[in-house]
Amino acid sequence: MTLDAFSQSMELSVEAPGTVDGFNRIRFHFFRDIEPIRSQCESLSIHQEQPAIAEVPGGLVHDLQPSFIHHNDALVGVYDNDNQAVGASVRVRGDPAERGAGKKETRFDGVVQDGRAAYYLGASALHYGHFLLETLCRAWAWEQYGGGTVPVLQHAPVRDFARAMYALVPGLAEQIEVVAAPTRFANITVPFPGFMIDHAAYTEFKAMCMRMAGRVLPRSTPMTEQPLFLSRAGLPDLAKRSLLGTRRLEEFLERHGFLVIRPETLPVSEQIALFNRHKWIVAQQGSACHTRLFSCRPTNLLMLTKKRLNANYILCDQLSEGTAHYGNVCWRPELGTSARPGFNEPVVLDEEKFLGLLKSFDLVRANATIDGPPPDLASYKRTWIEMAKAAITKDTATRSRLLRDIEVVSASLDK
């Protein structure tokens, strides 16, 4: 049995996408109920003014792991000379107004005294998307306010892609130091983040991203009508947001003139160039879509999603020119498992709806079809079991629930 038989019907058609006031360049396709999206968008905002900057004389940057020092469940990176938490250094997730006052910290041992002035870049992030939205977003003030300071990061290592990004900000990459022990500096410049997860973003951050892009783009990069597909097929089989049949999808799109690329195989400069060269970009929801922040031209993004959206993609699209289309064309069949299984379950593409979107934008011929049978339910279950088993070792708190769910899915596979 193919998974088409389990596909869920959606009320909004390709011809009548959902929209939200104030988000007029974003379209929502095949979402049964637009109200949750509207409510989500109402909590988001784009700020035109410059973010705040805190100057902290005698400030301390700690080296403790994020699990040990929190400010109302948010990581605090900088403390003043009285060991009071500096609010501007908090890793912001959600509305900052909901956080209480920072508390005094007393657990710093072996503090290093450093007579230099520092510029706080935040905590190192190993994941591309988290790096862009939670670490790089503090570099917006470096060119104007970083002179004479040493840029500091917490929690090594700094990944290669991060260094490549920092290299596009003049004078930054070659000076970065990672704090290896609690260090008190003569002064710390703490820029407020230019992006706040699930809440807001600043055009100042987007302006920095465009300056970075300008340093790697040829002066007259032509735009192409060839659509681009960002594939996740090269990621590990157990990667988050696994889409069954992605390689088959790659072959179909290549036959219809798409340039199919796997972003993780390309240098950062080439990824940025692609987002400035192609008028249409199609991608499954994932951090590669955040590279749109470096687009200096209007582009159109078609993102393949599930019914639940991540607000950070919407914020990135609000900062960017062009239109973004969210297509609710990824889903998972009902397996009788827990509502919250404890890992990102694999999803299946609703090929009929996906083709409908491509045809409505003239990205494929009107008679285009995807050759060969789509993944069947048994293939989905086997992939699900493999991913669930891998998740057991990563999150022991969900162990018993996952073991029960694996037993349920395995039993259904044997029938």
Question: What does this protein structure show overall?
Answer:
The protein has two domains: 3-44 and 225-381; 52-193, no CATH class. The protein contains eleven helices and 20 strands. It has helices spanning 35-42, 128-135, 142-145, 160-166, 203-214, 246-255, 268-274, 311-319, 351-360, 377-392, 399-414; strands spanning 26-29, 45-47, 53-57, 60-61, 70-71, 74-75, 78-79, 112-123, 150-154, 177-178, 183-191, 195-196, 200-202, 228-230, 259-261, 280-284, 300-305, 324-328, 330-331, 348-349. Strand 17, helix 8 and strand 18 form a beta-alpha-beta unit. Helix 10 packs antiparallel against helix 11 (399-414). The model is unreliable at 5-15 and 67-73 (pLDDT under 50).
Summarize the structure.
With 415 residues, the chain is an alpha/beta fold.
Oligomer: single chain
Ends distance: 13 Å
Largest sheet: 7 strands, mixed
Strand content: 15-25%
Our count of domains comes out at 2
Average of the residue pLDDT scores:
88
- Give the total of beta strands: 20
**Global morphology:** globular
Q: Give helix % range.
A: 25-40%
Whole-angstrom Rg? 23 Å
Residue runs with pLDDT of under 50 for 5 or more positions: 5-15, 67-73
Q: What is the topological layout?
A:
Blueprint (H helix, E strand, L loop, with lengths): L25 E4 L5 H8 L2 E3 L5 E5 L2 E2 L8 E2 L2 E2 L2 E2 L32 E12 L4 H8 L6 H4 L4 E5 L5 H7 L10 E2 L4 E9 L3 E2 L3 E3 H12 L13 E3 L15 H10 L3 E3 L6 H7 L5 E5 L15 E6 L5 H9 L4 E5 L1 E2 L16 E2 L1 H10 L16 H16 L6 H16 L1
Parallel strand pairs: 1-18, 2-13, 8-9, 8-11, 9-10, 14-15, 14-16, 16-17, 17-18
Antiparallel strand pairs: 3-11, 4-7, 4-11, 5-6, 12-13, 19-20
Helix pairs in contact: 10-11
